[in-house]
Design a protein that fits this description.
two-stranded parallel sheet; 96 residues; single chain; two-stranded antiparallel sheet; mainly alpha; globular
Amino acid sequence: MAAADRADWTEFERDVASVLDRLAPGDVVTYGEVAAEAGRPGAARAVGSFLKRSDGGFAWWRVVASTGRLVPGHEAEQTRRLAAEGVAVRDGRVIG
């Protein structure tokens, strides 16, 4: 799923990509917040699926579960990237 292929994406995928493109270093949002901002409240899981399919094409580390929990299996990398942007993480969750 490359950015050059956006013309072939669904409206939902383009809307989610637009939200993700606006995230700045240090921003942290939930999957649900991305879904709502993309005009699809309740589509948090679809946002997660989109990020997984994007194969790192977006700042996935800035998106967390509603509880602040990091991406299972990628906690170390997500913690490293968030810390580099000044975001505090403890015990696998964003704090503050």
